[in-house]
Design goal:
mainly alpha; Endonuclease III, domain 1; 2 domains; about 60% helix; elongated
Length: about 210
């Protein structure tokens, strides 16, 4: 099977079986999404969604958050992973938004990367989910699933995986393709015990056909 054939089969299967894939984070605007994605690092979306309602009530916008203290923010996010660092990042991010972008979340990769606590994956998620721009966030799920399926031959890093996925998925499908891969990784192609018998992609999966 050629790489092009593999992508074609993957796209066809997901289009038929997961046509409405979307983020599992709860948000209603770019600011809320950015906060939620920063909180989601090394933390489940389910946990983040239990934290953000009270957080957004206390800090409904970047200006309010920028005027808070790290200690105050910490109290709202203490149940997520690495709350000390995330509290610092959130306050710094909000201050940068107010200082550089009039309190609004920017819509380019370079501008997003200039914000404290925002790496390439976080910026890509914001571009895809808030602004419907072509990007391919690669987290551990996307990296694992793409590698197992054989979509990213030779990729050793998330950055290398991102390049290949963006090259081979049609641009108009990049946003939904990210969610295809991440949701498949969460619920089917799990790290320790992939549920291969429940997977509809075994016919084109390198990992399955190598280990069966």
């Amino acid at each position: 099977m050629t790489l092009q054939e593999r992508y074609k089969q993957v796209i066809e299967w997901f289009s038929a079986n997961m046509p409405e894939a979307r983020s599992e984070l709860d948000f209603s605007n770019p600011y809320e999404l950015l906060v939620a994605v920063i909180l989601s690092a090394q933390c489940t979306d389910k946990r983040v969604n239990t934290i953000t309602p009270a957080f957004f009530e206390a800090f409904p916008d970047a200006e309010t958050l920028s005027q808070s203290s790290v200690e105050e923010v910490f109290e709202y996010i203490r149940t997520c992973s690495y709350p000390n660092n995330k509290a610092k990042h959130l306050v710094g991010m909000a201050q940068a938004l107010c200082r550089e972008f009039n309190g609004q979340v920017p819509s380019t990769m370079d501008e997003l990367l200039s914000l404290p606590g925002v790496g390439r994956k976080t910026a890509s998620v914001v571009l895809v989910c808030a602004f419907n721009k072509a990007a391919m966030p690669v987290d551990t799920h996307v990296f694992r699933v793409a590698n197992r399926l054989g979509l990213t031959p030779g990729a050793k890093t998330p950055e290398q995986s991102e390049v290949l996925l963006m090259k081979h998925f049609p641009e108009h499908l990049l946003g939904v393709a990210h969610h295809w891969l991440i949701l498949h990784g969460r619920y089917v192609c799990q790290a320790r015990r992939p549920k291969c018998l429940d997977c509809g992609l075994t016919s084109c999966c390198e990992y399955f056909n190598r280990n069966k």
